[in-house]
Design goal:
The structure holds 2 protein chains of 2 kinds. Chain A is mainly alpha-helical. Chain A has one domain (42-169, 182-225). Chain A has helices at 6-27, 41-68, 71-103, 112-125, 127-132, 137-164, 183-229. The two termini of chain A are 31 Å apart. Chain B is mainly alpha-helical. Chain B has a domain at 23-50. Chain B is rod-shaped, with a radius of gyration of 21 Å. The chains are: A mainly alpha, B mainly alpha. The A-B interface holds A 31, 33-37, 39-40, 43-44, 47, 86-87, 89-90, 93-94, 97-98, 100-104, 199, 203, 206-207, 210, 213-214, 217, 220-221, 224 and B 1, 3-6, 9-10, 12-13, 15-17, 19-20, 23-24, 27-28, 31, 34-35, 38, 41-42, 45, 48-49.
Chain lengths: 230, 50
């Protein structure tokens, strides 16, 4: 069911990742200000964007679950959030490494972009205890969906709040008017972003396939046990 | 802060990319272990059914 198209998707992801790495290290010029350290940007920022989009996607899938009552949407939402949290760990760690190399500190508390991402990340860390504290599967799915929708709505609000505090934030590298990225850096960034998005979708499908197989196995075991008992 | 020299910056850049790679490898390994467990369980159930 979920494994359909997984192999071509995985191949496309490997090709896109390989292309992105080649562009990052052999095509994109060194940044005049930060030098080689700026290469972290090409993994850190796409990971952050994809993680935040994954949180929002989890919320949208949760809406589908509540509207249709189909529990497969809850599973999809759960896997999207789970993967986004994993990417979130990557964002925080690579961000800390970049901060140490650029600013001399692992973490800067008066940096709104950093702190706002941490707030979003910690908010979603609550999702696990909330979800797994409920034993009844129906209630678990419903409560998790409500959380996913509320938290998913918070993500763009949080993003906008950071943009409004522009004077205190990172220099903006992407905007509707072109931002401050030169063409070759922009191309590299967009390829890295596409590769990261593909990676997310591939891993999402992979985990969904594993979860679906596990559920099917449980059903099969129950059916066999019932047959043996009869 | 001035840009770090290449040899020093290289450690940070390598560190960031290794973190990213390690996350993906660990994640895929966990999923692969789950799939292997499902496969073993399916084989066992098939044998029981015969």
């Amino acid at each position: 069911m979920y494994s359909k198209g997984l192999i071509p998707l995985a191949v496309a992801t490997v090709v896109a990742m390989g292309t992105a790495m080649a562009l990052i290290f052999f095509y994109a010029p060194l940044d005049a200000d930060q030098g080689f350290v700026q290469k972290i940007f090409y993994v850190h920022v796409p990971m952050a964007i994809v993680a935040l989009c994954g949180f929002v996607a989890g919320g949208i899938m949760a809406i589908k679950h509540l509207r249709t009552g189909d529990r497969s949407w809850d599973l999809r939402s759960y896997v999207a959030i789970h993967l986004s949290i994993i990417l979130g760990v990557g964002v925080l760690v690579t961000g800390a490494i970049w901060a140490k190399a650029s600013w001399g500190h692992w973490w800067v508390w008066d940096e709104p972009v950093l702190v706002s991402f941490l707030v979003v990340f910690l908010l979603y860390c609550v999702y696990y205890p909330l979800r797994f504290a409920i034993e009844d599967p129906e209630r678990q799915a419903r409560y998790s969906s409500v959380f996913a929708i509320a938290a998913g709505a918070f993500v763009p609000l949080n993003f906008m709040a950071v943009r409004l505090a522009e004077a205190y934030t990172h220099p903006r590298v992407l905007s509707q008017t072109g931002g401050s990225l030169p063409g070759d850096m922009r191309l590299t960034f967009l390829v890295a972003l596409a590769a990261m998005a593909l990676l997310f979708v591939t891993l999402w499908k992979l985990e969904l396939t594993a979860k679906h197989a596990s559920l099917q196995l449980k059903k099969l075991r129950r059916r066999l046990d019932a047959r043996v008992a009869a | 802060m001035p840009a770090l020299p290449l040899d020093e910056a290289g450690k940070y850049v390598a560190g960031a990319y290794v973190v990213f790679l390690a996350l993906i490898v660990v994640y895929v390994a966990i999923i692969a272990a789950k799939v292997a467990r499902i496969d073993r369980e399916l084989t066992r159930l098939a044998e029981e059914d015969e």
